[in-house]
Amino acid sequence: MGGNTDFKDMRALLLGYYGSHNLGDDMMMACLLDGMQSQGARVTVISEDPAETRARFGIPALQNTPLSGQWDFPGNWLRGDPFRLLRAIWNTDILVVGGGDLIRDDIGPQIFLYTVEKILVALLLGRPVYLANVGLPEPKTWYGGFCLRWILRCCKGVIVRDSRSVALQKKFAPENPCVHVHDVVMHLPEMVYGSSTAIPVFAPPSQSGSIAVCLRGQPNAYGRYVLEQKHIQGLAAGFDHLVEKHGVRIVFLPFQQGDEWGDNPLHRQVFAAMKMQDSATVREWTGNFKEVMECIGAARCVIAMRLHSAILALALRRPCILMPYDQKLDELGEHFALRPAIRSVDLENPEHLNLMLDAFLATVDSHVVANSGPLWENSIYRHFLESR
């Protein structure tokens, strides 16, 4: 620990699933970018859509691309994208791998390599690598365990957002420190509005007339949340019940754009199964952070399958019911004592689901969680600097 304590004029590459029209990833990128730039770093983002990233965030960006020929080979090499990415890694002072479950081997070697290969290249070239705001699932394969162990031992700094990741760091690289802080998106309202005192004061939840619903387009991606037609029918019946008994409007709010992995195809399926469609809206995806925060801040509660919809609910003091499709939502619920949670089996029992929702809304104001997380200027960036 120690050493130089600023990033002034340092060339930094920021790597994540950025530019993929995912609000959670965009929000993490914006927060990490703001913190690094505020310390003087000259940041370039490795993006899935560099033109869109440059236009929206006014930041230099280059095309993310596979280096190991996982797909689009040899087309991407003929276009020169891997050469430009390798040159950028060669010319950078640090590589920051920022945000989310980027290093996971439970969805195949191609996706696993997509992030890991850039980390390995940077380490082999002697470039310092930082992991910032990451989640680290337990490896399922021998190659996953081998690579993760080597990465954690070689990284200059590791900042994680869940205790599962802390346990993996202690298991694979106990000699290296690991810092555990809240997800950086917890600070997004403070960053967007300029200060914690400038964040709008929304009406108490019990006085709000809408419920924000943020489902995930592929809920069973990790084999933990089956959502077949009977579950969709059960969820739609639960929303009908909320409209009829509590007089609320259901607002489906997508965090991922697109027809294949986007959220709105599932939102529209649930909407189509509802009887009370006049009291429901499927919003189009937007990358405007303020619009999304206003929708969540105005809600009586947020029903969250998307992790960062729950993070924003906590940051904006909105009650939240989780639909935990992955371990990270389970841990978030445990940390903030978010009860109840809607699981797949609950959607097969409409009476049980309605009772659960009624009990929650009857005392909805008491479900506001006080966010006691660290202040923006004293959180992830202080640890980032101290690890240098």
CATH topology of the largest domain: Rossmann fold
Total helical segments: 15
Integer average pLDDT: 90
Quote the beta fraction.
Answer: 5-15%
CATH architecture of the largest domain: 3-Layer(aba) Sandwich
Q: How do the strands of the widest beta sheet line up side by side?
A: 3-2-1-4-5-6-7
| Oligomer category | single chain
CATH class of the largest domain: Alpha Beta
User: Helical proportion?
Assistant: 40-55%
Q: What best-fitting shape do the alpha-carbon axes yield?
A: globular
- Runs with pLDDT <50, length 5+? 1-5
Number of strands: 12
Protein model, in words:
There is one protein chain. With 388 residues, this protein is an alpha/beta fold. It folds into two domains: 184 residues, Rossmann fold; 172 residues, Glycogen Phosphorylase B (Rossmann fold). The chain is 41% helix and 14% strand. The chain contains 15 helices and twelve strands. The chain has a seven-stranded parallel beta sheet with strand order 3-2-1-4-5-6-7, sandwiched between helices. Strands 10-9-8-11-12 form a five-stranded parallel beta sheet, with helices on both faces. Strand 1, helix 1 and strand 2 form a beta-alpha-beta unit.
Please outline what is shown here.
This protein has about 400 residues and is of the alpha/beta class.
